[in-house]
Write a structure and sequence with these properties.
The protein is mainly alpha-helical and about 350 residues long. The protein has two domains: about 140 residues, Serine Threonine Protein Phosphatase 5, Tetratricopeptide repeat, CATH 1.25.40; about 150 residues, no CATH class. The protein is built from 15 helices and two strands. Helix 10 packs antiparallel against helix 15. The N and C termini lie far apart (about 85 Å).
Amino acid sequence: MSEDPGKTRAPERPAHRKTGRSRLQDLAAIAGIILFVVLWTTRGNIYNFGYDLWARLFVTPQLAPAEDALTSGRSGDALQDALRILRADPDDPRLIYFVAGAYWNLDQPLLADFYTAAYLKSSRRKDPEQLRRLSGLLAEDERAWPYLNGAGFTSRMALGALIDSLDLEPADKARIKAGAEQSDAGMEKQFDADKRLFYSLPKGWQKAPALPPAQVLEEPADSESGATGYIQLGASTSCGEPWCSSLFERADLTAAIRSGRLAIEFPKGGADCCSLSLDDPDLRPIETIVAEFLARREAAGKDAPAASAEGMNALLSLRQRVLLKQSYLLSFAAGARTR
């Protein structure tokens, strides 16, 4: 039968037709996927923003007394206040920045370098102005460059990576790197100089031919009569540096700052080796420590070290102890990881 042309044929319903509600569900699902992708790709920025806000609300007020002390010229008081706060939050870039700057004010470039390395290794967001200032301090203070050379940075290309993370012009970065690599005051050269001096002494002036690192690290800073000898690190670590970087790679830099002690497991270095306090007075510049040693001898009416076996042994003990502790600190900063 033919179709009646006067009747309008109803359109056929599709086999499957989405309702308004199902379309909304699809849109919500797509929006959820997009939101997840955005959150995943920007999770670091979100974390840093949240932490930055928290630090401004809680850390900055706590640091205010230390900042006032630093402004008024009381760098020592400022440092102690800041270190107390840093122990509770050892990965906060603002606190680490402040402590590094305080050590520079106190003419202690070794510890300033240590905290600068901790600052640069921190994964948290760094204030651009603070990064510029800290970079400038490192670039201007040539006393710090030999310490970089003695920290194990020159091996494994780590020195270049550290310098590249500074906010400096390329010419300044090249100047620091060249100064660190060419420095005559590197730790290895000082260790070698002490070894040559030890063997050049007249027979009967020498004491122990070699000392385990644990014994030297445990020597108090005011000791002047310890067992003297060059420190046999090369045979213990099977590398040509004062310390092998691999010894420190499992160490946690953040945990060390929190506790105030730098600890690693090094069985060949002696029983329970090795640990060092960040408050140890032997971490000051070696020139300052030797000058104080000579002044104490003169005040006590003793001859210059070169005049007697006692004097040379005391000087060698002091130098070896200080060099080992400082080498240990810098190697820890170069190799340790942050959480």
